[in-house]
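Figure 2 data, in text form.
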Amino acid sequence: MKYEEVVRYIEDIPKFTKKHTLLHTREFMRRLGNPCQGRKVLHVAGTNGKGSVCAYMQAILLFEGKRVGFFTSPHLVKLNERIRINGKDIDDDTFCRIFAKVRQVAEELEKEGLEHPSYFEFLYGMGMLAFEENDAEYIVLETGLGGRLDATSATEDPEVCVITSIGLDHMEYLGDTVEQIAGEKAGIIRPGVPVFYAQSAEESDRVIEKTAAQQGSSCKKIGKDAYEILGIEDKHIAFSCTNAYYGTTTWKLNNIGSYQPGNALLAMEVMQYLFREKGHVDRWREALAQVKWQGRMEEILP
């Protein structure tokens, strides 16, 4: 099939249908060969800032010389944006080739009376196959909607779980209160897997802490007092950290959103956990300063 036909096929898959169970998603992934099993998955949920936190983690990992797969949503212009390898969208030829493999498995499921993977599941399968083929060492995996029942939660053994700020979103699916929504997001937490989360409301913080405790997982909150915004200059926001690990370094982001230092610090704390004394913090400064995340406080006109 030509690229345009592939996109048309995927876009015709219903996006917001009844959610498949994780058993269905895991069977789908099993038939794909359980791609990326055993690789280092950084699983990210939350209401606001998921994409930005993921982009910052990807940037630092690349500056550390790692091979990185990044699964994100939604896309702004082209479906390929959802599947990135070493910082670049997969090309059209790779997209079509991976699609053919996933479509074959989807058709096998249907022939056996099982449901066709959803729009999001289908792309998730494509992403994990692409990362497997490219031997990604780390996979930055952003949830779609919620967390507990999200297709990405078919991944059972992530390296870390990351939860960005929590607010009221998709209430028709996730619940009427901040506590209920936090419970859905905290559903990505796995037994014994470290959790890093951004301070939000007390109600949501309590839910995350309680879930982590129940799972026997260490839990680190990135508080709003963990950094200080130093100012905005030349379309960059500068900040410093209170953590001695980062010394007196001034960090700069290519974005003027006042909430972005919190997102960047959450990503940095995950990286500190992963690399500890082996991390090249001097490279992280350069990595973060270069991140341009389209559609996020992006200047279009002066």
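Caption note: The CA atoms of residues 191 and 215 lie 4 Å apart.
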